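# step 3/5: fold
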Amino acid sequence: MTVLPLIRRVLGDGPFTETGLPSLAVADDRSRRVAVAGDVGWLQWSGAGTADSRWTGHRVGVYDQDTLRCEHLVRSRYPVLSFAFHPALPLLAVGTGSYDGGYSFEGELLLLHLDSGAVVSALPHGREVLDVAWRGERELRLVLAPCDDWENPEAHEQGHTVVVSRDDWGAVGPRAVEPEELAAPPRPAARPDHRARTRRFLADLAAAAGRQWSPRRRVWAVESGEDGRVLAALDGVLAESWLPSGERDWVVEDEQGGRQLVPASDGTSVWTNAERRLRWRDGQWQRDAPRIARVAVGTGEVLETLDPVRSGALVSGGGRVVLRPTDRARRHPERLTMFDLDAREEGPEAGSFDLLNHAFPVRRAGRAYILVGARPEAPHKDKWIVAVGADGTARRLFPHSWAPQEHHFGGPAAEFGRCLVYAGTVHDGAGLQPGGAYVVRRSLDGAVRWQHRTDHPATALDVDEDTVYVAYNSGALTALDAEDGTVRWHTELEVDGTPTTALSLAVTPHGHLLIGTVDGRILECSVRR
């Protein structure tokens, strides 16, 4: 009997959670609705980046103004810059866009039908839409950025104002606006920043409904203890703990936030790894000092903080924790650092690292596994799965790609029954292709037991005694039979009818499935009866 996951409880929930960090909000008194634009973020950090392919974190949420219930949630290819509710129709005009960093101003005019949730992209080609405003029921005023900044240094301060007229905007189809309707001379155009005002507005709306609002995003790691406690690492939080009662017990904050949780060998503490990205300061790119800490599970006390010279990714297995440097700027081979509660020593060379090729976090590992290229001058090519023993000995097991004609990127993995089950994508110069993402089970001698192909990259993976659970950046969640790879069930992840995307997951000691979402929530699901 097929058993789809049932959400037992939601941790970290709150009003407007679905839209991530908000940038714009507009209320419509006639329909008693609120439109909120936000961003749940990218799906990559310096230790992993494969899941970001074909992803956008820009969101449009439409909420009931009185109950704050999310009625519609829409993904946008570009940041949302402006909103306007139609004065009579159940229709929301949405202006989106951004500069591509080198030449063009790209974007869309979206028409969101509030009765059905259908979305229409109305412009004939990509244009950044700086502002939208209805002038009665028939006319929509648009301010469009120039097409590009070629030989126009003032393009970033200019806009083209046009008025498009239709008898029935509810009947407008895709690309229905004609190019000649968008012709107008350039004039100075403001690009206001609404973020501070939007945050105050949403906090006031939540307070009026008797609730509190604070933004949460991207739960990068989740773990569960034998006592039912839930641990998480997320944006702005190095680590946090939730009690079985659903109460948040403690939180260790961090400016950028934790990306990994690795249980320590004492069983009462956890290693966590903070992100440290390059920032432009004082006329140059700089990176803050790395932060890797061991935190007491019961109290949240930071027991110790490592001071590695460079940022890295934590690799677990065999009772020890391994730090693999992730600094791409360094060209010479890097060595691993192996540490435990009372010891730290230098490990073997691991070769250079990049977040697409070498990400390989293996859950339930009896020893540490890493991906290493066979060619020092081209470490992204001919990668092998390498096992690192407790004594620091590195042994090549088998090539990461079982298809010699394909170049495979790294991804999440788990050890299971003297096999490795791992996900990844196949490189293509034109981008990820249909069927270009996979999950494979391989014996430790390299033999392929089964493979499962799909269209979207995996964000997370874990196993229990007979099932492989895989989350995808499309919002899908799939359970595969661990023995033969057949699909046991497949579902689109939703919370209260609104779609979301899993960024992390873990099978708990009690057989439940923990899911950390891109919008900052933690879902505890039952997957068995």
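# step 4/5: annotate
Helices lie at 195-208.
# step 5/5: archive (pending)
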